[in-house]
Fold each of these.
Amino acid sequence: MKATSTRAGSFKQVVKVRDHQLTADEPAEVGGEDAGPSPQELLAASLASCTAITMEMYAQRKGWEIGEVEVECTYSPAERGCPTRFQLTLRIPASVPDDVARKLQIIAAKCPVHRTLDGEVMFEERVERVALAR
């Protein structure tokens, strides 16, 4: 998997993933143009969407009709003495049986983004010096 981010303004970034393009930016109050979600907001969006997709795929494999699913993710980055916190609220229809709801909650925690954030992460950075296109 690969994403490429290129400057398009003060802090505004054009992010390319496969054949898709999206904009990331910072809010105006911190010097951005607010042209798109911040990178932190995109992280929360990634976890929320991955969780919802994982639950829907699981339900589909089991042959369960669960209806509209919504996942809300609230994210508080780490600060001195406090860990990073993600709060997930899984909203499923009241008609979904309790045992199915419990299984969906268990499977939600197994989404790939959740596992990545919960697991050991390693980074490798390098600098490539390139001539700028004019």
Amino acid sequence: MGLFARDTGQLSQSAWTVSELTAYIRELFAIDYRLQDLEVSGEISNFTRARSGHLYFTLKDAGAQIKCVMWRSAAERLFFQPEEGDAVVANGRISVYEAGGVYQLYVEHMQPAGRGNLAVAFEQLKQRLADEGLFEAAHKKPIPLTPRKIGIVTSADAAALRDILNVLNRRYPLVSVLIAPTLVQGADAPPQIVRALQWLDGRSDIDTIIVARGGGSIEDLWAFNDERVARAIFAAQHPIITGVGHETDFTIADFVADQRAPTPSAAAELATPDIEEIRPLLQGYAAMLRADMDDLIRQKRWQVQTLARALTHLSPQARLDNNRQRLDVTSARLDRALTSQLVRVRNRLAVAEVGLTAVSPLATLSRGYAIVRHQDGRLVRAAAEVAAGEGLTIQVADGQFTVEVSE
């Protein structure tokens, strides 16, 4: 049951606890619609940015002061950097910080007070980023002369995109385009622009990135004065061309970019060469290449002919033919030598055969002689070597036979 159900007529009989009283006061604030959405102007003092990203400060004027809290989610949407002594207008609601027993303004939106507050925020951020060196020429990357693919960060249905595509198609139809659509106006635009930039920058097939938006008021262009967008452009690895607004419009993104164009169409012109201007140059290069190629072909043809002649002269085929013929001659010579050698051998054999025949025991046997052997094969050289009854083997010219000695 809420604290409003308490019988306030009985307060004298039972004391409130501090927590009950503080909660009751908080609910009183909560039911007063005038305190739930109001604007308060004053000067910032006791400004503190916590490590968590929350802002704590006091708004004061000549007669009073009020404590203020701005949570990180709201502080990240600020387009300027609050500082001690700034005059601001804060929008939010009143509630009670129960642990401290104080009422506070919980700020949802805040802007510099007075006329030209956006210009003040612009100059503040510009000066701070310049002091950090984000605008220095040493950080600017060169724009490729003949890009193959260009990334575009802009609204998908914006006239600026149509202008860019028309210029690219007219000037350099050889280039391809990759579009990263995003909001380009409003509180949600900066984080979307950052994501689109980072997505294109993470690709390896992109040569140049164009960040563009058509003209508008300073409020319309304010997304390109956002610190998150500026730092994303500075951190990009690919060269970035900005074409935001009209020729007289300058944004923080223009100062950080590698090159600033006065309009989206001009950004497309800066990103590409004019094909009509480079056509004669390309035709001249083509003629030079053809002439060089013809010379090279003539040189190579002469070299091939020279090498062919040398190859014919040094070809192993001629050596093989010579060796084959030399082999045939040598083979014939070897055949003749072998034949002559065989004849000589046959002649020597014939002579030897005649000599052997003359001394051969077979020749003696053919004349009527015989060879007598014992049964064990020993020659019988004298009659005394045999005994009566012994068997002998008699060999004659055409064979042999066995006899027995009778006496």
Amino acid sequence: MIDNVWIHEFPAAITVCDAQGIILAMNEKSCTTFEKDGGANLIGTNALACHPEPARAKLSTLLESGSPNVYTIEKAGIKKLVFQSPWYKDGKYAGFVELSLPIPEQMPHFVRD
């Protein structure tokens, strides 16, 4: 699991993979979210194998390019913001972090200039 204690019970799914797509860490919410796919047993496996097409091709492109990807989804009546971003170790591209945050159906938006 992840060493930072606060991450374990953080109310959003956090999944971390290396530059080849190997899942390195999942917090409790991520393990629960992906329980049908193996939960914590996914650690050490390739995230590409967990995705059907065309999502697999998209993830492969993200891993190769190191470009971030942000979108919203709704599944089982729960709306989520999915934020996929590269992470770095000693300034070198090391893989991707995916945050999947539940968001309310109606959410305030503030413009602060």
Amino acid sequence: MIKRIFYGWVIVASCTLLLATTYGISFSFSVFFSSLQDEFTWNRATTSSLFSLYLLLTGVFSIIGGRFSDKYGPKVVIMVLGAISGLSLVLTSKVESPWQLFLTYSVMLSLGAGAMYIIVMSTGSRWFFKKRATALGIIGAGANLGTVIIAPVCAWMIHTYHWRSAYLIMGIVAWLIIVPVSLLLKKDPSETGANIDGNPVLRETEPANTPAAGEFSLRESLITRNFWLFFLIWFSYSFCLHLVISHMVPRAEDTGMTPIRAAALLSLLQAVAIPSRLVAGFIADKVDKRKIAIVFALVITLAMFWLVAADTAWMFYLFAVIYGLSYGGIDPPVIALVGDVFGLRKVGEIMGILMISWGLGSATGPYIGGLIFDYTGGYHLAFFSGGLIMALFAIFMSGVRTDKKL
């Protein structure tokens, strides 16, 4: 008799595809950077602010999305968000003035896609305990895979046609993928008659730190030391990541690299992050998640210092490989730790609140990078700051406690 596959893996596959689509589109912003700057005659700080506002608003909309997902389940929420995302991109292709672009891209796309990460990660967390980091590593790899595929495709469409055509096509792609895939989602294993990890019933010998124990309400989590450490951790991580994603390609172009070769850096960074996520997720299910995150944070710190001095193609490519491996490895243990520490009852809302710090970091990083460039004519100070803030990440992570005495 063929053993029935645990539906949690269908959830993982669906969430991976959803994240690949939304993050592939949004993380390709740097490919559009020069075209938008030329179209609207902006400086780099203003152009960066378009993406910064999008990222800042993701924190706001993630709270709403996480709460609605906890209450109504992910299926209907993501179906609506997918419709909004597609509409946002289609309208972005038609804008005629800067204020319209800020409305259709920064506001509407953040409304449609901003909560996607929190919803798919909190949904995936509910289906697994023993293999939670592994499952979340696979889902998170979708963000990298989507960027690997979509960024160069967008670069080709911009070069061959126009940036407006690229956004129009991406809007249609968002509709064709997100809305149908949302139909496969279920909130938790109880909807399939199974239990977490696919077990029919929990054993009496289940360890004390199973999801049934240590469940925190949103209010209870907010008064813990751990929550505010996570708040600082997410800000630091997001600041550095989005600084790199927004300004690595323009910086490479400044040294003489062609736009397509510079865009390939982003694809390379995301490509090497995929196996790193999978391996790190598997390892994080077996050892202390904090130690894994700290090691990768320190490697990122060194990589950012390397980027300060990068001025040739090989130096940029080496940075992309090292940063991508570390960035991919740091995510699964950090996300899995949230479920481990606070439980699953309100994990969507808790992650939603944490997304405020993520939004603040992701908005601040790109904007500060552009501002420093406009004032100094270079990115040296910006990238050095990114390295320092990841060193702070390691310090904050070392203070997280997993013994429930938060």
